[in-house]
Amino acid sequence: xxxxxxxxxxxxxxxxxxxxxxxxxxxxxxxxxxxxxxxxxxxxxxxxxxxxxxxxxxxxxxxxxxxxxxxxxxxxxxxxxxxxxxxxxxxxxxxxxxxxxxxxxxxxxxxxxxxxxxxxxxxxxxxxxxxxxxxxxxxxxxxxxxxxxxxxxxxxxxxxxxxxxxxxxxxxxxxxxxxxxxxxxxxxxxxxxxxxxxxxxxxxxxxxxxxxxxxxxxxxxxxxxxxxxxxxxxxxxxxxxxxxxxxxxxxxxxxxxxxxxxxxxxxxxxxxxxxxxxxxxxxxxxxxxxxxxxxxxxxxxxxxxxxxxxxxxxxxxxxxxxxxxxxxxxxxxxxxxxxxxx
Length: 342
Ligand code: KG4
Ligand code: ZN
Description:
This protein is an alpha/beta fold. 44% of the residues lie in helices and 19% in strands.
């Protein structure tokens, strides 16, 4: 048997609007990564409708798992453990993945490992960077979270900073809606920004008082709304591309500003980014530059591993598996699960 050599994890992710399953061997070797996106379904409502998301997960999950196993050329008999996101996220959506994982774990008598969604995003960096090991700094920028963490070890994190209000991705989505781009906002703002001038409008870059590496994006979002209102009242035409590019630049300046401060103040020479916003090309370029000018090694997953996927959950679950972490059949969805909690 090759079980001594290989740990084969079936991973499941259903925390928001992607139904995803993957087979990951030894934490870094992705044999399949299937993502069934519900974006088209939610677009007509301008954002994710939780009840619709849950129902769609139920419809899709069995087929997505079957496809992940098929692409990996495995059956459930070949799987050593199931990893699943159990929080944070939409409770109804999380429950679908958690119930599925527990059913497989019970039927096959294999361990079930609950994974924190943010830990999954961080772990996406391990997949294409086989030599990356903690400690390193990581900036996770998604639709629900903006966290600057010190990854001390596998599964051990010190949170250096977090958003005090909106997440960066949430601000992208809200601004996109306000300028008529619709959902999902991030990729649309990035595309339109290519035609715009990032210096056209000066939106505020909030800096939280004190030493903490915290973030705030709601003031920036309000500044965009005020600007749009002002234009409307004065009858000035709005240049969508300039608003998008100027807003994107303001968000990136804040993200990179805190990242750079953390690099300089901690002296840690490895920096990773993760989460949906980390797929933004302008942000990636700015981080590459900030890191290279300081002699800091920079890591970022391919765009498909930045947005929600199950391969990242398989990577995180592997290190929990090695640490002997196991969850029972009482595993439940925890919509507001904190990083570092179990
Ligand atoms: O990590 P993710 O897929 O889901 C969450 O865990 O939230 O992140 C989704 C977020 C959305 O807010 C989306 O607008 C944003 O990431 N996003 C982007 C880009 N692609 C996705 N933001 C800026 N630029 C992008 N290219
Ligand atoms: Zn996510």
